[in-house]
């Protein structure tokens, strides 16, 4: 058991509130600051992408006894539903029998997590903005504005769980030798909704992650418990087909009619949301170190914000907490060592999931409709079924395993090199399921190399 | 002629003060803010590396009529003096006859530039720290601290010439879609001095840039007008031989004796400086955009801080000013267009000189003593002498030409690929000046490709 500390968490999002539960159960005092109002008392922002909880997220919840409670908020999706223009709808299974990702509304989960953290004894201070932090003293200064008098709070430890635009990291960034990058992609997103049928049922299959890949842009839809779908339109900020170019109701209507004919009955609603909801940017953030001495540590998006295209943002943040807890169990009250080993363990994995997420952005928007890409997936799938030990697909390794993101990236790269050679085989389009292809893959994998 | 604007420059360094002269001569009102005291009234910081003014710097000074004045502060260096252990001192010419870089003390130049800007009518506000900037309104807020009342200044335009840790950029960085990175290298530097002889003469050749390459660390020395040399010791922060490990006078003495035997008579002085002067970090900073609407623009290190190993930091900043001025001449009062074209013209060059400077860090510390590297330089030199049109050495293109950094990087990469092949030729060590080698290079350059 650790000595009880007085700990601040900045940020009452998913990672902040789950971390609060973990720290409370470990016997610490926990105060959570958030500049925003209590999400339980306000309408949702209209800028959320539904969450895809998968293995890493569930593991972290299970360890602290919250899995069952959260399962009730989630719908399992075991496949992609591909809405490719001029083709009938088709499905791609995500993994093996029984494997699924889970669609959860961010807002609903966040409300529940705050309830759970409060029940565990954490104290929330909403609408209290952190303006400055004395890293060495673990002291937080909050106030109404930059120039009005501030309130000072002294803690033993501070966690920055305050997301991509973290104030805690911002303070650390002004130090010498703090490496940092923020890179925005040229694509934005917007939340849209497909409402439930009048009887409360879903208008589309509710066990699928729906994708309308359209090259430079893409629509996705994930089901909610109430029969609605939360959709996300990903599209460039500027250019021919872009958020900037669609600036009238007529253009929005024409856009939805042209590109999404199979959901045209919902256009009125999509169009309303299109002009009501904000257009949001997406950023990859990398930094190092993730801690200041034994006083302050970053966790979740504040340490490694990623683009959302692998559905791993929250899962990676929850896994951070689980790894931090491993280090707490091993090193007791030596917070210097806990933070040091935590950041060394997690930094390569943060970098790896950032890279994988960025690549999936390319893959989901353009490649999912590409015949050679689909052929590759077909070959991989068959080979993986016949040789499940030798070939775990990258998506499965990231989504359904506990193996590290860094390892997944490395093995995924090797698999890509192998498949690039296989796709060069003569008449691969017709011979793709021949024994020669299978043998060639085994040969490329090497006798003793398990990837 | 442009309409006269009321312009603020944040930062009274070299770029800020030269920009002030340019803007004054173009008829604008100019106020320069600096949080530091007037450098003309205080001792130097002891953290400077001497400047190596070269073609781009001189061009920008010449254009505004300041070249002759500044030449008086500079000493031409036409070669490297290589102090390689267990070898006699030897020299490497930088370029062709008459080509040289110019050693100038940063502090002395900065004092002079501020005098010149003041003479041109710029108003300096020293010890006035900018705490906040309203980008849209081009308004600056200064004050004693973050919480005391601030003074508000409204301008038409603001330039951030406030260096690597720019407050202006810091404000821009908090915007969405602002790409930014800061990357520190693990090597630090420290200013040291070799004093003049009693008669005021230099102790080492004063027309050379002196280098003691020692693998993981390196000492350099550049002459001053007063007979002294400003030296810079580049060395890792931590590790076996590092600033951290040399923590006693005895260790410092042993270090200088072991690695720099040819300057041992100056060890007492080097040792004194070693403990007196700060150990400083080096950072590469990249960002984009470099401007906010037609209101605010970054210039010099604030837009593209680089490591100092190509001696181009100030030269690149001065070239920024010259390019900005081109755009002012072309686009008159259309500051939106001026800023837009300025950043588009300069961003790729900022990135290129960052890359070249980082590579030179590797080259200067480790490769300058490597036999194959020296052989490569020998072959290149001979070929360039015989074919001056076909082969401008990378260093010359960066240092002695007006061609863009981006072009220099691209052509330099091609030259590297060619030389990698040439060094593979049989018995190249003995045949390096044979006609076969010359022919092979010509062949690799391609019949019509001039690099």
From TrEMBL, chains A, B:
Name the Gene3D superfamilies for this protein.
Answer: FAD/NAD(P)-binding domain (3.50.50.60)
Q: What class of enzyme is it?
A: oxidoreductase
Pfam families listed in its UniProt record: FAD_binding_3
Obligatory cofactor(s): FAD
- Keyword NADP present in the record's keywords: the answer is yes
Q: Which gene encodes it?
A: kmo
Q: What is this protein called?
A: Kynurenine 3-monooxygenase
GO BP terms, alphabetized? anthranilate metabolic process; kynurenine metabolic process; L-tryptophan catabolic process; NAD+ biosynthetic process; quinolinate biosynthetic process
Which source organism does the UniProt entry give?
A: Zunongwangia mangrovi
FAD-binding domain sequence ranges = 7-354
Q: Which GO molecular function annotation, any one, does this entry have?
A: FAD binding
């Amino acid at each position: 058991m650790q000595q009880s500390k007085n700990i601040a968490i900045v940020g009452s999002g998913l990672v902040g509130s789950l971390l609060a539960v973990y720290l409370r159960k470990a016997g610490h005092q926990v105060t959570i600051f958030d500049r925003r109002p209590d999400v339980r008392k306000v309408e949702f922002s209209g800028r959320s992408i539904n969450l895809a909880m998968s293995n890493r997220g569930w593991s972290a919840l299970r360890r602290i006894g919250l899995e069952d409670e959260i399962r009730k908020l989630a719908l399992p999706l075991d496949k992609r539903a591909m809405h490719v223009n001029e083709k009938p709808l088709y499905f791609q299974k995500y993994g093996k029998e029984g494997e699924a990702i889970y669609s959860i509304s961010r807002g609903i989960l966040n409300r529940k997590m705050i309830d759970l953290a409060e029940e565990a004894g954490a104290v929330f201070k909403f609408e209290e903005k952190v303006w400055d932090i004395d890293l060495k003293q673990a002291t937080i200064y909050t106030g109404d504005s930059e120039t009005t008098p501030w309130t000072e709070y002294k803690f033993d430890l501070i966690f920055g769980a305050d997301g991509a635009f973290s104030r805690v990291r911002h303070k650390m960034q002004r130090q010498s030798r703090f490496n940092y990058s923020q890179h925005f992609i040229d694509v934005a997103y917007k939340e849209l909704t497909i409402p439930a049928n009048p009887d409360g049922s879903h208008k589309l299959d509710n066990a699928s992650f729906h994708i309308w890949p359209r090259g430079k842009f893409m629509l996705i839809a994930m089901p909610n418990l109430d029969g609605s779908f939360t959709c996300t339109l990903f599209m460039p900020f500027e250019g021919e087909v872009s958020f900037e170019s669609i600036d009238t109701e007529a253009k929005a209507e024409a856009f939805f009619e042209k590109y999404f004919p199979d959901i045209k009955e919902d256009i009125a609603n999509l169009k309303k949301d299109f002009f009501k909801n904000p257009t949001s940017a997406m950023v990859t953030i990398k930094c190092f170190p993730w801690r200041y001495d034994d006083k302050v540590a970053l966790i979740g998006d504040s340490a490694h914000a990623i683009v959302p295209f692998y559905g791993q943002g929250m899962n990676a943040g929850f896994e951070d907490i689980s790894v931090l807890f491993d280090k707490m169990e091993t090193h007791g009250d030596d917070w210097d060592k806990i933070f040091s080993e935590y950041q060394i363990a997690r930094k390569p994995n943060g970098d790896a999931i950032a890279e994988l997420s960025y690549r999936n952005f390319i893959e989901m928007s353009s490649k999912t409709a590409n015949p050679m890409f689909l052929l590759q997936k077909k070959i991989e799938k068959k080979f993986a079924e016949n040789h499940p030990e030798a070939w775990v697909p990258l998506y499965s390794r990231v989504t359904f395993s506990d193996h590290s993101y860094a390892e997944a990236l490395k093995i995924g790269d090797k698999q890509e090199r192998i498949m690039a050679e296989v796709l060069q085989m003569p008449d691969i389009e017709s011979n793709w399921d021949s024994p020669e292809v299978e043998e060639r893959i085994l040969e490329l994998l090497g006798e003793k190399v398990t990837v």
